[in-house]
């Protein structure tokens, strides 16, 4: 086939063009300028039309789509996340878990939060059966059009379903609510097993030895219903108690409370030494303490120095400590704000770390009393 011949035809100058004032100045350079102007006007008109029809968020999504098919849907993640911090951590399975997730526990319209999060570049949503909103999360994800392999979905097994014969049905319910065939990560929500159908009566045997529950979770991995399994709210003693068994798959993560008031440096160091990734829940101190966290003088000072927000200082600090972080917000502007992490200069990072570990630790989440337990879930001496 003969190659296509392009013939350059200059645009005819119109009467009101500035270039038309003096035809003598109509040089190839001014032709280029006129062409650029036309292209600019064309793009401006198209953008205005697109925005009026689809809205600003759709444009943001359109622009953040990759040009190349081998890229992930959210090329934006690489621009918004990072700033020298890891965008992902690698699990024992080889899967890469995104370092910042949207938390979905608590009050508020979670569907809108998930919608916003996916639009601005989150690829990780932390959920649980107990949050009673997995269907809302699933609907928001489905509406986003994001392919399944480009979003990380975590759910958690509630205390009533630790008996091996109950695990699969509980998992199936979460899968069905979310509208997915598999989870990226499934956690034992608490190291406490309740007897099903009771008013929080503890199954002492299964609580003291969660291995039967774990074996069932391993089976779920082999069945392809879950890609990674992990634990939540396990202290070091409880992790050791579980991992003393001949596990087929070791826990991929331990999701625990980590924030300015409860930074748990010993657990963090131990987890690193033992190749167990921590996920920081209530990273801002939860609704109860978020303002107090953000108003800490050191947090304010770093925020001013780096011209970022106090929440961004804290969320960045978590990732820099080497943990996945799960800030929750149902406020669209905050959802977006919380994804913009950046590496803190080493001296400022150390100052914040020193301030966080300098006071006696105080947990914000401890349901031991609320559940009527006669022991503390986080007691190092129990259940060994
Ligand atoms: N495994 C477990 O047992 C466990 C326990 C607790 C939590 N979690 C997980 O961790 C997630 C986060 O924990 P959390 O919800 O307790 O606490 P959090 O993320 O530390 O704090 C949430 C509070 O901070 C506010 N907030 C968020 N971003 C903000 C910002 N940029 N500026 C000012 N305020 C901001 C939120 O308000 P608005 O929403 O009004 O914006 C909300 O009141 C949960 O959603 C859940 O996924 C797991």
UniProtKB/TrEMBL annotation:
Keyword Transmembrane among UniProt keywords: yes
InterPro entries: AKR, Aldo/ket_reductase_CS, NAD(P)_OxRdtase_dom_sf, NADP_OxRdtase_dom
Domain NADP-dependent oxidoreductase: 113-354
Gene3D superfamilies: NADP-dependent oxidoreductase domain
Segments forming a coiled coil: none
TM spans (from-to): 38-60
GO molecular function list: oxidoreductase activity, acting on the CH-OH group of donors, NAD or NADP as acceptor
Entry keyword set: Membrane, Oxidoreductase, Transmembrane, Transmembrane helix
Protein name per the record: NADP-dependent oxidoreductase domain-containing protein
Organism in which the protein naturally occurs: Steccherinum ochraceum
């Amino acid at each position: 086939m003969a190659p296509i011949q392009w013939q350059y035809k200059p645009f005819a100058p119109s009467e009101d063009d500035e270039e038309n004032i003096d035809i003598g100045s109509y040089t190839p350079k001014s032709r280029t300028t006129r062409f650029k102007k036309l292209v600019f006007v064309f793009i401006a008109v198209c953008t205005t039309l697109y925005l009026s029809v689809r809205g600003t968020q759709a444009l943001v999504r359109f622009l953040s789509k990759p040009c190349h098919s081998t890229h992930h849907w959210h090329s934006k993640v690489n621009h918004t996340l990072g700033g020298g911090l890891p965008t992902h951590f690698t699990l024992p399975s080889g899967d890469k878990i995104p370092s910042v997730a949207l938390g979905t526990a608590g009050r508020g319209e979670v569907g809108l939060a998930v919608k916003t999060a996916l639009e601005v570049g989150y690829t990780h949503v932390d959920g649980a059966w107990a949050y009673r909103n997995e269907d809302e999360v699933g609907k928001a994800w489905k509406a986003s059009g994001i392919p399944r392999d480009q979003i990380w979905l975590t759910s958690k097994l509630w205390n009533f379903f630790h008996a091996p014969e109950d695990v699969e049905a509980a998992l199936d319910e979460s899968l069905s609510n979310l509208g997915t065939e598999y989870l990226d990560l499934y956690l034992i929500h608490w190291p406490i097993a309740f007897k099903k159908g009771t008013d929080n009566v503890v199954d002492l045997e299964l609580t003291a030895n969660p291995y039967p529950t774990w074996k069932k979770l391993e089976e779920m991995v082999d069945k392809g219903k879950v890609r990674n399994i992990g634990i939540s709210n396990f202290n070091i003693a409880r992790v050791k108690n579980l991992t003393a068994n001949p596990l087929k798959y070791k826990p991929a993560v331990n999701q625990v409370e980590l924030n300015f008031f409860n930074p748990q440096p010993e657990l963090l160091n131990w987890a690193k030494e033992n190749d167990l990734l921590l996920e920081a829940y209530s990273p801002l101190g939860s609704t109860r303490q978020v303002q107090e966290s953000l108003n800490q003088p050191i947090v304010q000072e770093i925020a001013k120095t780096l011209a970022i927000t106090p929440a961004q200082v804290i969320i960045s600090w978590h990732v820099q400590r080497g943990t996945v972080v799960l800030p929750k917000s149902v406020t669209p502007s905050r959802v977006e704000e919380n994804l913009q992490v950046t590496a803190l200069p080493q001296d400022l990072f150390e100052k914040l770390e020193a301030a966080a570990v300098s006071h006696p630790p105080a947990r914000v989440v401890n349901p031991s009393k609320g559940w009527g337990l006669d022991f503390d879930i986080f007691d190092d001496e129990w259940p060994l």
